[in-house]
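Residues pack. Consider this:
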Amino acid sequence: MPISLAILEKITREAGNIAMRHFNDLENVGITKKSSRDLVTDADVAVELYLKEALAKAYPEYGFWGEESGQSDNLSNRWIVDPIDGTHSFAKGQYFWSISVALEIDQDLVAGSVFAPALDDLYIAAKDKGASKNGKTISVSSESSLADSMIATGFACLRSYLEDNNLDRFSRIAQKTTGQRRFGSAAMDLCLVADGQVDAFWEQELNLYDVAAGALIVKEAGGTVTDFKGKEGVFPKQILATNKNILDQLLLLM
């Protein structure tokens, strides 16, 4: 069955409504740690359960991989979901968190949506059909000078056991760029590249559900998605998204 972006948007927005009901009542939201650094809230669980059921009802032929509930048997054709990307921001009452939904068929990303409910911004894309934000077509920036670029990164990979913790890389790049941002949601960071609000984003040690939808949106908006050596593709352990023009300049610093 062909994927309807209208249906995907409707389902994603309803997931956002569920998340916002929890967000507007944070003092009564259960928050636990699933690891020493990773939080899970009642909202994560509720949003993922809704998405799992709604997507299965609309498209029963596809499997499901959610951050909280794990993977189904169908690994070739599946929805890839992060119910709350930026859980720490969510739990603190900050607005920069999102819901990420992507469809992967035979290891190829074909549709994706990222919704930031607290900002009421919804990004959506389908392969070879472009990307949009709130119904308007978007594209990456035209900036060609690294010195004049604004870049974003994240430090989810900061772990005491990792020798490469992104600090040295950040220091190198920060000295060569005009502005640096750390928002806390990889899915949204990717969408900001797609929308031309930042010129590039990189991060390490992520998972596919963090970046699948956002990576497709970047590519459909005219950007590049590579690893730190410039190999094209979606590599969550090393992801670099750019407006294309500053890719080669950034690769020298990675």
About this structure: Residues 5-137 form a domain with the Fructose-1,6-Bisphosphatase; Chain A, domain 1 fold (CATH 3.30.540.10).
